[in-house]
Amino acid sequence: MPTYRDEVVVLRTHKLGEADRIVTMLSRRHGKVRAVAKGVRRTSSKFGARLEPFMVADVQMYKGRSLDIVQQAESLGAYGADIATDYDRYTAASAMSETADRLNEAETTPQQYLLLVGGLRALARGDHAPRSVLDSYLLRVMSLSGWAPSLRECARCGAPGPHEWFVAQLGGIVCSACAPTGAPRVSVETGDLLRALLAGEWDVVDAASSGATAASSGLIAAYAQWHTERGIRSLSHLEAPR
Which string of b and e fits 101-112 if b means at least 16 CB within 10 Å? Predict the structure, then answer.
């Protein structure tokens, strides 16, 4: 059977039998991959710790009939330990991995892989608030998946902004003429923060008020869950931004 190598992020694992695991991974070149890692639950396993959630690895696999088989794994980014020791980091990473899993049922791009790796690295290092890292990831991955939110012009009629209402179902910021009754109103600071999160302007993100951070997080969560249709269960475990 043909073998292949790729860089992967481990999204989740499931027990299989007494010593094996099924590992779901987002790869750089082969999309989402599900593979069996044999014997990794034994204490003598040479690479079991490299195939835990949030770890980045260079793996060699060979094609199986239903599931591929992991033959080798070399660590490229041991982010799992630093993330797992902090609740906020762990829940943010879980939501990111779940989103990547949902969005890449059929295929992926190297940009989506690199975006997830960068987000997990930022969480492990504590570069920014975990919820801000998650929010930036959600906006960017939605854009890469073809669902870029409109954050200045009206998402419905295209009228130049900025505007003051946000409707996930309509695609983002909308003008007063297009906003349905009860639409959430967006302050100037929150609008600026949403655009900074999408653009990766971390000086603006880190300086934002707690009110704007909480408001933007709520809007982004609603937008992401609307487009993933089945929702992102991990978001329910996130604490409110402080």
Answer: bbbbeeebeeeb
pTM for the model:
0.92
**pLDDT, average across residues 6-20:** 91
CATH number 2.60.200.20 is the correct assignment for the domain at 3-78: no
In the chain, CATH 1.20.1440.120 covers 85-237
pLDDT, tens only, 73-115: 999 999 998 999 999 999 999 999 999 988 866 556 899 999 9
Structure tokens at 41: 């639950």
**Residue 224 · residue 138 · CB < 8 Å:** yes
CATH of domain 85-237: 1.20.1440.120
Cα 108 to Cα 173: distance, rounded to the nearest angstrom: 27
3-state secondary structure the chain: CCEEEEEEEEEEEEEECCCEEEEEEEECCCCEEEEEECCCCCCCCCCHHHHCCCCEEEEEEECCCCCEEEEEEEEEECCHHHHHCCHHHHHHHHHHHHHHHHHCCCCCCHHHHHHHHHHHHHHHHCCCCHHHHHHHHHHHHHHHCCCCCECCCCCCCCCCCCCCEEEHHHCEEECCCCCCCCCCECCHHHHHHHHHHHHCCHHHHHHCCHHHHHHHHHHHHHHHHHHHCCCCHHHHHCCCCC
